[in-house]
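Bit of a strange request maybe. I'm writing a small parser for structure token strings and I need a real example to test against, not something I typed by hand. Could someone generate the tokens for this chain?
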Amino acid sequence: MPFHRFPRNPNARRNASSHVRGAWSGADKPGVLVTTQGGNYDPGTPKEGWDHSTPWLRRVLEDVWGLDLRVVKRQFTLVGVNPALDAFTEVAAELKLEAEENARAAGRELALSREVASAG
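Reply from user aminoacidic:
Good idea to test on real output. This should exercise your parser:
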């Protein structure tokens, strides 16, 4: 279920969570969380700790739904849009390539796990 369609009403959210848990019964199924961030919130950066959504999403997907989760982060998406971030153009380009490779690898892993599951 894409999170942009995840219900905001608490009762509807509980129902959606129950539905997803029922549909995905069994722990350790593979999953991928793809996040985008306008800046960079990694350790050692000036905005370290400002990513307030990824930990919450991980908690739901790993701890509540029991997914074996891989996270793909695409950072500095506002470089080239926000002039204050123009100094990070080269870093943003490197992070973009890294995120694209991580997304490809995650997709390959999901496809392989699906093939193994259907063959077994």
